[in-house]
Amino acid sequence: MATMTYRDVTPTGKEVDRWTLPNVPERITVREMVRLRVREEVARHNATLGPVFQGLVQPTGTELGLNGYRMPDRRQLDWEKQADVAEEAFGRNGFFILVRDKQVENLDEVIDLSTNVDGSDVDIAFIKLVQLVGG
Length: 135
Description:
Number of strands: 12
Shape: globular
Largest sheet: 5 strands, mixed
Number of helices: 2
Helix content: 10-25%
Radius of gyration: 14 Å
């Protein structure tokens, strides 16, 4: 099993968020990687129902804020709906993904997440290009 380190990065290279997801398969498709990320961020939100959702895809009925998407009704989100919208956004170039500083271009591309030569976790950068609206 591997550990993924997700980073959200602006188009200018500024890191805005970072977190890790342990115990993922060492070989995984980009689609599975995106869906795991979305499932985790929605689970974190649903556990607290906080006023702000920090995620890859903006849920409907929310407003963009400084630190994420403001949730005026503090509802639970459907991770599968959010993941479907994220897949669609990837296909429309709404964001792109760098794995080990190399851009991945296809959701069906298989990524090897075994640790780097220096023993560090694999770095995965998500760069949002446009505001994404989802479920």
